[in-house]
Amino acid sequence: MPHRSTRRLFLNQAVLSAGAAIAAPALIGHAAFAASRWASDPFRLGVAAGAPTPDGFVLWTRLAPVPLSTDLQAPGGLSGPSIPEIAADEAMRHVVRRGTATADAAYAYSVHEEVRGLSPGRSYWYRFMAGDASSPMGRAITAPAPGASVDHLSFAFFSCSHYEHGYFSGYRHAAEETPDFAVFLGDYIYEYVEQKRPVVRHHSDGVECITLGQYRNRYAQYHTDPDLQRLHATTPSLVTWDDHEVQNDYADRWSQTFDDPAVFLARRAAAYQAFYEHMPVRPVFSKPHGAAMRLYDRYDFGDLLRINLIDGRQYRSREACYRQPKMGGHVETATSCPELLDPSRSMIGMEQEAWLFDGLARSPSRWNVIANDVMMARLKQRTPSGEMGSWTDDWNGYPASRARVLQHIADSKPANPVVITGDIHSFWANDLKADFDNPASPTLATELVGTSVSSPGPDYETFKTYLPDNPHIKFFESRKRGYVGVDLKPGLLTARYRALSDVTDPNATVETLAAFAIVDGNAGAVPA
Ligand code: FE
Ligand code: CA
User: Fold this and answer.
1) Which pLDDT does position 80 carry in this prediction?
2) What is the pLDDT of residues 193-240, one digit of tens each?
């Protein structure tokens, strides 16, 4: 039901005047704007909330009455305010805040409203109004007060939703669980168009994204998906990215296609801007400056959980043995590629490493999550010539950087470090060892890897043959699509590996394929 009448707006004003606390200017002063009539619903990309803190969150929408048009005049010149309204109840009877957000033409008429001054540790409901249109309603939460005793949290994490390869039923089923928040670990969109295998549905423009307009359209198409909209409207998000938000297997300014770094940075700037325009990220903190965009950040949930959300792409060293004709990740050994072991190379950049170490060492929380794009556990896999080697695009391609992270964990002893990971389109449960060559060495942290929402997994039989050489890997399954649901209590983390019946079925069902527990004080996942 896209359109709401001006009468509805009038009723909202009546509700406000009936006693709600109003902290920001209401519709008064925007009468001309409020009277604007849209030719079609401007809220077809839905709404989202993100970045929850104890006193607020970010609310997102984008005015896009013609979602897949590159003509940004399409909003009909309505570049003025879009008014978010925040209520303390699901029926939106008790409106506690009404803002005046700007839908900025320079950012594709997206809205990022940073709301502050709310109460900690509770749900709020919100919607936007612009002219005669009102958005769908969304739910957000505020994080618990700093240091507050928290006895339970739930979240779900996701990665790798390739629109062409299936439906986003994982998003729908996760929404039905109403987690406190969702974590997106990257490959939220795919920049390319599948050419090699049959697809379920198409990227509408049929082109690989290079320009800002193309990336915008890609995000807009994803945001028209009803399951994606439902998840965003149900729960706030923490978002980081992986490679496909820009290009497969890129590292900082180095593309897998060996582009001139200056040319590639222009593409990265376009991709980062489109990401910003379509995600509920903080407006000042994360607004891109050219090809630079600050995404990595920390989120605290009382005394129970700290999430260190890291950026594994923007600052990483060039992939080891980056040379033609190999494109992107490949398997190398220390003999074939001595550069792999160079200690000056970093997965996340030395500055972010220092930031991460500080966040772990000073954490007040019982559980310390590192939300991360690519696999951290050592995974020996076979080279084309039959030796066991390392994949250059994940942490196996940056072993010195991984060793620094694990050594820091061993030294600073943050409580219950847990790495959550995407990228590899398969479920894993991994012990992160002090010495991966010695199975008897201490397990310092636990890695939970979620499968893809829809992207095809790696060959199951091939990867199974790697497991005997990787005894710290406790679980592997690449034949299922889905997500991971996490329930967290002070003494116990439980992770449910949720698998879809059929990603090509828009009505797919879901079941728990496996469940793992991590007991407070005991790194390593055990069957739950
Ligand atoms: Fe992926
Ligand atoms: Ca990836």
Assistant:
1) 57
2) 999 999 999 999 999 999 999 999 999 999 999 999 999 999 999 999
Distance 190 CA to ligand 2 centre (A): 9
- What does the pLDDT read at residue 34? 47
Write out the residues surrounding ion ligand 2, Cβ under 5 A.
Answer: 187, 242-243, 423
Domains and CATH numbers, the chain: 4-141 (2.60.40.380), 152-527 (3.60.21.70)
Of the ligands numbered here, which is closest to the C-alpha atom of 373?
A: 2
Å from CA of 121 to ligand 2 middle: 33
Give the ranges where 161-297 is alpha helix by DSSP (H): 169-176, 212-223, 226-234, 261-278
Render pLDDT for 437-448 as a digit per residue (tens, 0 to 9). Answer: 999 999 999 999
The Å distance, Cα 425 to ligand 1 centre, comes to 6
Centre of ligand 1 to C-alpha 490, Å, is: 32
Q: Which bound ligand lies closest to the C-alpha atom of 456? A: 1
CB neighbour list of residue 378: distance below 8 Å, 6 or more residues apart? 390, 396, 399, 402, 433, 436, 470, 472
